[in-house]
Design brief:
The structure holds two protein chains of two kinds. By secondary structure, chain A is an alpha+beta fold. Chain A contains eight helices and ten strands. In chain B, strands 1-2 form a two-stranded antiparallel ribbon. Chain B has a single domain, classed as Fumarate Reductase Cytochrome B subunit. Classes of the chains: A alpha+beta, B mainly alpha. At the A-B interface, helix 3, helix 7 and helix 8 of A face helix 3, helix 4, helix 8, helix 10 and helix 12 of B.
Chain lengths: 307, 262
């Protein structure tokens, strides 16, 4: 799997013309496409997610909207946000499926101090390994989208896996499988970006959404879950940051300043050790008289000579 | 320091002195009473526990080495804030216990100027104005006080990260770590000075006493205030006595070695 081209045919004996399929490359980067404009808020994806991950259905909270609960939870990775907006003086629902965006440059992974608790696959999926998680919650503050959620009983953090277990078997994520309108799609990053581009062009030219566009923020080198929005100029309306960033201390502090700090500590211990060797102790005064080593040795030698 | 805090501290000193004992023998002075020693070691134990658990989370390189000491990574993480909190509580009482002698004076400013000759053992005797604590000790105390305050504030922000903005939490991690490095630097020097560099010092925190020689060497002004004697004169007298004691011994040794009678 590490190099899918290993068994691609390179040469064929006595074959007229070029080798069939020569130069083809396997697209490894996966992506989920979410078209906010065609979502009907049926929550089939929420149910499919809970079922596939075998989570018990948790209690819902009512806050004057159709939204299941205020935010995603440790056992509720996928949530339709029912944002009430206005268009031409009428109510307009912005139904955004909220979940982990599987950033190309994941803030959670950058912030994590536990070896092996967060991994990113070649295909772009960012996955939490709960057996290595120490429950410090650094990932929560590292995430620009407020996605990782702490489970107070197990002291571990959970989030959407992009159904890495299904994708590994060549299946689409559970939410995509369940979606009845086709607003969710799953495929290679290139394909999804292309479809999203076409769809937003259609929205701009045929549906009167002049600012329609694709949300794939370059500030975190893009995401492996992309949105088609009616209005790409105001992603905050949908609860998405316009310019998501990872606090810089997670990169510079962790990989530059921290090792320097450690070396300084080590140097400090070495310094005091050799200080003692070079300068000796500070004894309470007066110390005993210093022994004159030279003559005393002669005396010792004289004593030994005597029988 | 407010009157209530002072009363609290006085009362605790009295109570601890009744439970524990400090034996002061001839030629010795009481340096740290039982209560002070109890606070020092309580702070020390929980500081070291916090340091170890914190360092595991601080560095991916230390994580694999230190986390197993506390059972596992998650348990290390779980224990760290509680160790830290107990450290803070004990340090609060230690702060009350020591804040008066730790007040910065002009003598400490002058001590700081001569820190180079102090560090290179140039002067066998401290300046006569050095009191119960010298400038370096006071600086370390105030570094701990500052770091302790920063630990507490940033630690609580990290503890209640779910109600604090994300950027505040991220900056808290940074400040928490910087405070730890600052304190670690002082901690290394503190242990070195208290053990290997200045023999006779460690017992002040175990037995509670020091020799008079130690007192007039390292803290002359304190020696003067507790004994009423001049530290320099005491030192000179001791030097004379030592020479007197040495003379017959030297004679006897020479006689034994050579058989000559001088």
């Amino acid at each position: 799997m590490s190099n899918p081209r290993t068994f691609q045919i390179q040469e064929i004996s006595a074959h007229p013309g070029p080798v069939p399929g020569q130069g083809t490359r396997r697209e490894e980067q996966v992506c989920k496409y979410i078209d906010v404009t065609t979502c009907i808020g049926c929550k089939a994806c929420e149910v499919a997610c809970v079922e596939w991950n075998e989570h018990p259905f948790r209690e819902t909270t009512f806050n004057d909207t159709y939204q299941t609960m205020p935010t995603t939870e440790w056992n509720y990775y996928n949530l339709i946000k029912f944002v009430e907006d206005e268009r031409d003086g009428n109510l307009m629902w912005l139904l955004r499926k909220d979940q982990c965006l599987h950033c190309e440059d994941p803030g959670c992974l950058r912030a994590c101090p536990a070896d092996g608790a967060i991994i990113k696959f070649e295909n772009g999926i960012v996955d939490f390994q709960q057996e290595n998680c120490i429950g410090c919650g650094y990932c929560i503050s590292g995430c620009p989208f407020d996605i990782p959620k702490f489970h107070p009983k197990t002291n571990k953090v959970y989030k959407c896996t992009l159904c890495s277990d299904r994708v590994g078997q060549g299946l689409e994520p559970a939410c995509v499988k369940a979606c009845p309108t086709g607003c969710l799609k799953f495929g290679t990053k290139t394909d999804m970006v292309q479809i999203a581009g076409l769809r937003s062009k259609q929205l701009r030219e045929e549906s009167g959404f002049a600012d329609a566009g694709v949300y794939d923020p370059p500030s975190i080198k893009g995401t492996h879950v992309i949105y088609v929005l009616h209005d790409i100029k105001r992603p905050e309306r949908y609860g998405l940051p316009a310019n998501p960033v990872i606090p810089p201390m997670y990169t510079y502090w962790k990989w530059v300043a921290k090792p320097i700090g450690l070396w300084m500590g080590l140097l400090g211990i070495g310094a005091v050790f050799f200080h003692r060797i070079f300068y000796g102790p500070k004894l309470p005064q007066p110390e005993g008289p210093e022994v004159e080593t030279g003559p005393r040795d002669e005396v010792e030698a004289a004593r030994k000579e005597r029988p | 320091m407010s009157a209530t805090a002072k009363n609290l501290d006085e009362k605790a000193r009295g109570d601890f002195a009744r439970i524990g004992t400090t034996r002061v023998r001839r030629g010795e002075l009481l340096r740290h009473p039982v209560y002070t020693r109890f606070l020092h070691w309580s702070v020390a134990i929980f500081f070291i526990l916090s340091l170890l658990t914190g360092f595991a989370i601080y560095s991916p390189w230390l994580f694999r080495w230190i986390a197993p000491l506390f059972g596992s990574g998650p348990r290390t993480r779980l224990l760290h804030p509680w160790f830290g909190l107990v450290f803070e509580v004990f340090f609060f009482f230690q702060f009350l216990n020591w804040v008066t002698p730790m007040m910065w004076t002009d003598a400490d400013r002058r001590w700081m100027k001569k820190i180079r000759s102090y560090a290179t053992n140039k002067e066998p005797l401290e300046a006569e104005e050095v009191g119960f604590f010298n400038g370096g000790q006071k600086m370390y105390f105030w570094i701990i006080a500052l770091s302790g305050l920063l630990f507490l504030i940033t630690g609580l922000l990290m503890w209640f990260a779910h109600v604090v903005p994300r950027w505040v939490v991220a900056i808290s991690y940074l400040i928490h770590d910087l405070a730890a490095l600052l304190m670690l630097a002082g901690f290394i020097i503190h242990i070195y000075e208290g053990t290997a560099h200045q023999p006779g010092t460690f017992r002040s925190m175990t037995d509670g006493t020091v020799t008079e020689n130690w007192a007039w060497t390292h803290h002359p002004a304190w020696y003067r205030s507790v004994t009423g004697r001049n530290p320099r004169e005491a030192y000179e007298r001791e030097k004379r006595w030592q020479a007197e004691r040495e003379r017959p011994i030297a004679h006897w040794e020479r006689e034994q070695d050579t058989g000559e009678r001088p």
